[in-house]
Specification:
This protein has a single domain (4-183), classed as 2-enoyl-CoA Hydratase, Chain A, domain 1, CATH 3.90.226.10. It is 54% helix and 16% strand. The chain contains ten helices and ten strands. A six-stranded mixed sheet has the order 1-2-3-5-7-10, sandwiched between helices. Helix 5 (138-148) packs across helix 6. The protein is globular.
Amino acid sequence: MPKVITEWSGNIAILRLNNGVVNGISCELADDLAKAVNAVKDEADGLLLAGGEKFFCIGLDLPSLLELSRVEMRDFLYKFNNVTFDIFKILMPTACVLSGHAVAGGNILALACDYRFASFDDKKIGLNEVKLGLPVPYLPDMILRQVVGDREAKEMIYTGEFISFGEAKKIGLIDEIYPLQELEDAVIEKIAKIAKLYKPAFLAIKENRIEEICYKYEKNYKLKSEIFLDCWFNKQVRKLLEKAAEKF
């Protein structure tokens, strides 16, 4: 069974995470998501990223990833960062459908999309990396600052606290909250409406929005990844990660 299932609503592609209740980001999920994005990028007019109703995505699949060597973890990190970057820069309107918690790596995938639409005010979103001894990866750090501004991003990243979807809407991290039964249809309608606009104009606008972040990421991602790996393999950090893995 693939870890990402591709569905279609007209010419809008829906990529649905399919890795158990928590949708942990494993090597297999990163591979399948990359394949799914590549398969639809030239066919779809818009893209939706969706997950489960309890968890959109809990983040990195710590139990499996903690078994990797540094070389293997570097390879995984490259794949995950690369597919996140591919979603961020794909030249079509994109949205993330959040019917469940979106934390850590789940928040990262949500940030890669143009829009984030949610259900349930009390579900959680956030980047808790610092509590585990890790830096927020370079790309989502930059995207978050663009989306909510440096002041709000600083508070989220420095404290590592999760916030509710309702709180996230107030700071602009989530665009709109809908009843669960209306959520996915509303998001499809939004993306389909944008996809009908004159495509060359939309593409130019999106390229302008992502240009600076793309330039910085491509210039610096290798160095930033090594900093992340240095933290990941620190003995003190490993204890924190192993404790967190027990929750999976």
